[in-house]
Amino acid sequence: MPKTYYLFNPGRLSKNNRSLKFTPVDAEGNAKKPTYLPINDINELCVLGSLDANSALYNFLGQQKIPVHFFDYYEHYTGSFMPKDYLLAGKVHIAQTQAYTQPAQRLVIARKLLEGGIYNMLKNLGYYQNRGKEVTVYGSKIKQYYETIRQAQEMPIAELMGLEGNVRQVYYQAFDTIINDFAMQGRSRQPPLNEVNALISFGNSFCYNLCVGQIYHTQLDPTISFLHEPGARRYSLALDIAEVFKPVLVDRLIFALLNKKQIQAKHFDKKLNACYLNESGGKIYLKAWDERLKETIKHRAMNKNVSYRRLVRMECYKLVKHVLGIDEYSPFKMRW
Amino acid sequence: MYVILVYDCGEKRVNKMRKLCRRYLHWIQNSVFEGEISEVKLKELLLEADQFIDKAYDSIIVFKSREQKWLDKQIVGQEKNDLDNFI
User: Fold this and answer.
1) Lesser CB count within 10 Å: N end or C end of chain A?
2) Tens digit of each residue's pLDDT (9 = 90 or more) over A116-146
3) Are A68 and B51 in contact (CB under 8 A)?
4) In this complex, is the C-beta atom of A22 within 8 Å of any C-beta atom belonging to chain B?
5) Nearest residue of chain B to residue A6 (CA atoms)
6) pLDDT per residue over A312-326, tens digit each?
7) Over residues A233-243, mean pLDDT
8) Under an 8 A CB cutoff, do B23 and A18 touch?
9) Is the peptide bond preceding residue A191 cis, with omega within 30 degrees of 0?
10) Cα distances (Å, whole numbers) of residue A8 to A43, A51, A87, A117, B86
11) In chain A, % of residues over pLDDT 90
12) What is the pLDDT of residues A198-214, one digit of tens each?
């Protein structure tokens, strides 16, 4: 499986003999020994440091269908370089648009997506319940919402999103019980006010860009979404799919990293009224994240081992099948 | 599949071989590469090498391992290049 490469060091990336060459630069601007990245082993690039590159490189990456995701100084996702769409399918596009324009159809998908997300959140709570964290109160509250959503046949999307907000609020309250040494004290973003919030923001942005990258490899149009309102300037379908996977991938990882003390107070920078992961913290998180995505689980229907990254792609395929009327969509539900 | 590829080529073809291998694998030391690669990609690599090597003189040896974790790697002295995807 080709890998995701994370570029932390500032430097120059260039095309070299039909492959890539990365020349890191130190603080004084002197070039250091270059490293060569095998082009055939790259799935996507995540750029966290400052990068020098020219259009010849981007032409080449476009040809090789390698997306590049950029993150700013505070490790916020800022955007991607996406190669030209290569899986064009008018039929899917039309079906996807139709599924969006007909409220009844859209609601079916939106509800399923949300259902998947909430189910996975409940699984998380159940997991920690078994490990002696007292989270039943939150669990039962969320279960009520879950049932309302399952039964909602006719409900405006806005109301559905409202319920989603309620669920999240309760869910995030449970974080304070699950996480040992840090307090979360409610969700805060732009900027995150404390360590847990910083981790959630950081994790979510990588989950989002994982979904962007995987949707790119399917026939779906990333701008037409069902649960979230298709807005301008963002791939809202990726937000939809991230909804299902955030509890599975991001939250679980955060709990593990904090409770096993792999990420500690020294891995954060607190400036003014904001809290961000610093470079070493980011590296620890991304290493664990990368490992996580490579991990495989046994897929029951296929009777095959599937990595978490692949699972996201399969979620997209399920959506394609749903809009084409081949198979009804059922969201990914964690079983453990 | 995880492989270690070593080659021994005539001086004129060494550069070609190195450049070719760099597109697929990580360089670890002179004429030795290693990395994760699929069956098909490896075939592609060898086929391309086939175009320019002199079979009467050169040799390419590929050690295959099912996964990286089945490979015990010991380094004595200098590690010339670490193969990390965090750069």
Assistant:
1) C
2) 888 888 888 888 888 877 777 777 888 888 8
3) no
4) yes
5) B86
6) 888 888 888 888 878
7) 81
8) yes
9) yes
10) 17, 9, 31, 31, 7
11) 2
12) 888 888 888 888 888 88
Place of tokens 């539900």: A333
Residue B5 tokens, joined: 């590829």
Residue from A7, A8, A17, A26 to probe the interface with B (highest B Cβ count within 10 Å): A17
CB contact under 8 A, B35 and A41: yes
Question: What's the whole-model pTM score?
Answer: 0.81
Within chain A, all domains assigned CATH 1.20.120.920 are found at 90-324
Top-level class of domain B2-65:
alpha beta
B52-87 pLDDT per residue, tens: 888 888 899 999 998 888 888 888 888 877 777 788
Q: What is the CATH number of domain A3-81?
A: 3.100.10.20
Q: Chain B within 8 Å of A12 (Cβ-Cβ)? A: no
Q: A215, A224 in Cβ contact below 8 A?
A: no
A24 touches chain B (CB under 8 A): yes
Are the C-beta atoms of residues A98 and A323 closer than 8 Å to each other? Answer: yes
Q: Does A280 touch chain B (CB under 8 A)?
A: no
Domain with CATH 3.100.10.20 in chain A: 3-81
Q: Name beta bridge partners: A271.
A: A274
Residue A35: count of CB within 10 angstroms of its CB: 19
What pLDDT sits at residue A232?
59
- Please check if A195 is assigned to a binding site: no
The mean pLDDT of chain A is 83
Residues A293 and A309: their CA atoms lie apart, in Å, by 5
Q: From the centroid of its chain, how far is CA A281?
A: 18
Predicted confidence (pLDDT) per residue in A71-85, tens digit: 887 777 888 888 887
Quick check: B6 pLDDT over 90? yes
Which CATH topology does A90-324 take?
A: Four Helix Bundle (Hemerythrin (Met), subunit A) (1.20.120)
State the smallest CA–CA distance between residue A44 and chain B in angstroms: 11
How far apart (Å, rounded) are the C-alpha atoms in residues A131 and B46? 52
ipTM: 0.85
CB A98 within 8 Å of CB A105: yes
